[in-house]
Hints:
Structural class: mainly alpha
Shape: elongated
Largest sheet: none
Number of domains: 1
Number of helices: 12
Radius of gyration: 21 Å
Oligomer: single chain
Number of strands: 0
Strand content: under 5%
Distance between the termini: 43 Å
Amino acid sequence: MTPTTSAETAISPLVEDAARWKWLLSDTLVMAKRSSLRLIRVPSVLIFALIQPVIFLLLFRYVFGNSLGAGTGVEYADYIVPGILLQTALFAASNTAVGLADDIGSGAIDRFRTLPMARSALLTGRTIADTGRNIVVITIMIAVGYLIGFDFQNGVASAVAAVGLALLFGWSFSWVGACIGLSIKNSEAAQSANMLWMFPLMFTSSLFVPTETLPSWLEAVADVNPVTFGVDAVRSLSLGGTDVQADVAGALVWCLGLCLVFIPLAAHIYRRSS
């Protein structure tokens, strides 16, 4: 074998890998565009996605704020808005579950399987599209937060990091929703199933009140709740404090753990359903 042939043999797998990743990226962007266009063509979905977190924010700020804000150590608007931002991002998991279940029920996934496209593109494209939707909703939620007295107190860079972390947390939980949607295969049932784990996680966390104000047995649960880690990190980045690095590190560990477990699981469920 000549030196030239040896070099070509070594380079060939690299070229094939690059082409494979380019193909995956292209198909993922196409599927993300498809999901985004569906959202634009049915604007009521985006409108209701905006209304729900605004209602949550106004209720907890003006109805429960006086009673719940006493133990937070800060103005309740500053306490609750970072929590609602993370809650808004987490709702992407429900959208992912419903969207994939609807695709299965309508036969769209069966049609996609007949096309020469990367199989994982459907899942990654859907989660990316839901993250894009979250960017729009969170931007509007920040504007509403400023209207009710919230303010980022730790600089522009930390504010951007807080939003980015909320989006990353929502994207990680989107893979939980993907597993639910692919398993249940019915949009209404998928939405209900998603709420079964989402609301307990939210209400047994530091999202609405400090965990120290909870009963001792529930505080122990809340302290290991992934939503607590996410909310504390977003809140620390938004308001500042001495535990910012530790809070962010804990949240990133949870994001990594969720991705390591649920991305392969979603891919496995998708392959088995083919």
